[in-house]
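Case study 2.
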Amino acid sequence: MVLQMIQAGKSHREIQDITGVALSTISRWRNEGKCPPKQKMFDIESAVVINDGHRPYHDDEIDDHICSHIELTRPDYIVNLGDLADFYAISSFNKNPSRISPVNFAKELVCIRQYLGRLRLIAPQARIIFIKGNHEDRLERYLWKNAPVLDFGKIPELKDIEEYEDLPKLTIPDLFGFKKYDIEYHEDGFQLGKLYCTHGSIVRKHSGYTAKAEYDKNGCVGISGHTHRDGKYTLRNRSGQWVWWENFCTCDLDPEYANGQVMNWTQGFSHVTLVNGSPRVEQIPIVDGFYVFGGVVYR
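Prediction:
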């Protein structure tokens, strides 16, 4: 390319401005008439990782920030690490009777579908990945305990029968409308290049402690939600460098069930750049109504 620019009559300074190649190198290549050495090619992909919205206890402002970031950066992947729903009405904890009704449960599902539809609208090109969290797991446990005969979402004997496929099923993919919005569902985890994405199952007292525990459990580079805060654990040994990230939450920091207690949670998301599959994770906290990305403040 440099030699072609020289042949086209461009000055060395113009070529440097366009290509970033040093003037001395341009001069040497011109005198030698040789092509520059081949540059190593990189396969670059990007992802936005979010989790723990706990609808209807979500934070609309946080959702707006993340959706704006997705529109701006156009990631190849949007990975949700789970707990998109709270499923308050079917939890095993003591509940407010006024919140237990088919209407509220239906409103949760409508809220979830509206959000997923928004994601698909602003990111038609992205692979949207959803990983089951422990709150989505509440539905399965509720059915097993209270209505096992209605848990017919996975019956291998009927999988090839067309009428079975048309049955309305009480499963997360069917209730959330994943087929409608072209969303991939993973019950355990998802391998994003060399980054293992999972909801997580461990909670430690302090930020970063859970990241270490998740690394000890999984033994790989990974990212998880569940703790509602950010954290990071890094280890370098003879086998390489290993990192595990805790990935914030997008829910309200003062939900009604907190009863005024200050929750040790942080809001935000992660922007992941995959370089030949190797992850570079930027943890982006959203504090006081704004976040910073690429040296720019987004309010």
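The mean pLDDT is 91.
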